[in-house]
Amino acid sequence: MLKHVKDIVKQKPNEGEPKRKIIIFSEYVDTVKYLEPILKRHFGERLLVVTGDLSSKRISQINENFDASFDGQEDKYDILLSSDRISEGFNLNRAGIVVNYDIPWNPVRVIQRVGRINRISKKVFSNLYIVNFFPTEKGAELVKSREIAANKMFLIHSTLGEDSKIFDIDEEPSPAGLFKKIQQNPDKLEDESFYTKAQKKFAEIKKKNPQLIEELKNYPARIKTAKKFIENELLVFFKKGRLYIRAIKQNEDKGNQVYQIAFEEAFDKILCGENEPKLSLSGSFWESYLKIKKFKKYKHVPLSDLSIEQKALNNLGSFISKPWNSLLTHLDFLRTLREDIIDYGTLSDYTLRRIANLGSSNEAKQKESLLKIIALKQVLGEDYLQKEKERQKDLTKEIIIAIENQKV
Fold first, then answer.
1. Superfamily of structural domain 2-133
2. Would you say 169 and 162 are in contact if contact means Cβ atoms under 8 Å apart?
3. Percent of the chain with pLDDT over 90
4. What does DSSP say about strands 399-407 and 222-229: parallel, antiparallel, or unpaired?
5. What is the mean pLDDT of the chain?
6. CA end-to-end span of the chain, whole Å?
7. pLDDT tens sequence across 18-67
């Protein structure tokens, strides 16, 4: 590991980017203490170590040297060696590299570690690098830790879902197979995420037809259109703070029901070429359209994170209905979080996971949850949702776009 870290430190920054700092995580304090003298011999005072409780001085050192948005930045440290004590609640985006010296059994910890440098709206580097270390063949034979590591990675894959898929559709994601995959060149394995796919398509359209993007500002709030597709289906997009999509199959079965889908599902259904001919609305369009309009249930339906969002809501509901004494002063903030999840959807997946993993079953978990809620309030701001509400006051109309697919 030492050779890799030294090579990284010596690298020159890309043009226009600052020097990359490095975060090295271990799940165990003893491991951090083992690594400290080794790294200290080579990097001296440029190494900052965090193990136990954080003093105000240590917190200041971390923020001053690793937080790109912190006032009064310093450059005294290149490497931060830490246990998972700082895997939450810190913005460390002056570091472009996270080194996982070990991989925790709890996959949420891995997400939290990476989340320290992958900060929404606070981009510092064009590319971020995650380095995972695994034992040698000899070490793995002695303690079976290679199999343990593979199982951990399999658990992570299962938890993160298809957004982090690295197997082809016909491959079985076994722990052994997953370990072989992560040994290969990750550039050749990386799947394109849905959001990357959508952004690329938008950038392609904008480059070819910039005037079209500009004209969108003048489009009416109600749009109805029809095009050719492989099945008969009406999709209606509602923008009421959040985006909701309702759909209904249009065939001979008069019992067809309205259902809601996520944008990931709808994307390929509405995608069409530049010269796609517009069709006339079918005879069943208005009946289906009115049926969808009368459907009163508004519920956000993400594909893979539904359980996370629901668990976050469950936690907030439990905390609000049965607060412990030290939580009482934070109830308004918890209500704001709940309102956001239900009606506005501004919270990132990472923040939702943080809320979903809060606990209250005993005094220790209550104390830990309280600290995390306070940290989240400091990051977001107590009245953060008010800005979104003010923005939506300017939306004079609800936006509704109806797209009818016709099997011709």
1. P-loop containing nucleotide triphosphate hydrolases (3.40.50.300)
2. no
3. 18
4. parallel
5. 76
6. 61
7. 888 899 988 888 888 889 999 998 889 999 998 866 788 888 899 899 98
Residues 6 or more apart whose CB falls under 8 angstroms from that of 228 comprise: 276, 277, 279, 405, 406, 407, 408
Higher pLDDT, 106 or 266: 266
Distance CA 352, CA 329 (A): 21
Using alpha carbons only, give the angle 88, 302, 356 rounded to the nearest 5 degrees: 30
pLDDT for 304:
40
Could you state, in order of their start, the residue ranges of all structural domains in the chain?
2-133, 195-301+397-407, 306-391
* Amino acid identity, position 156: I
Q: How many CB atoms lie within 10 A of CB 269?
A: 18
Do residues 242 and 398 lie in contact, with contact meaning Cβ atoms separated by under 8 Å?
A: no
- Structure tokens that stand for 21 in this block: 């700092």
Distance between CA atoms of residues 310 and 345, nearest Å: 13
Digit-coded pLDDT (tens) for 230-271: 889 999 988 765 677 889 988 766 567 888 887 778 888 998
Q: Give me 44's structure tokens.
A: 């001296």
Distance CA 177, CA 62 (A): 38
Q: Give per-residue burial for 339-373: e unless 16+ CB within 10 Å, then b.
A: ebbebbeebebbbbbbbbbbebeeeeebeebbebb
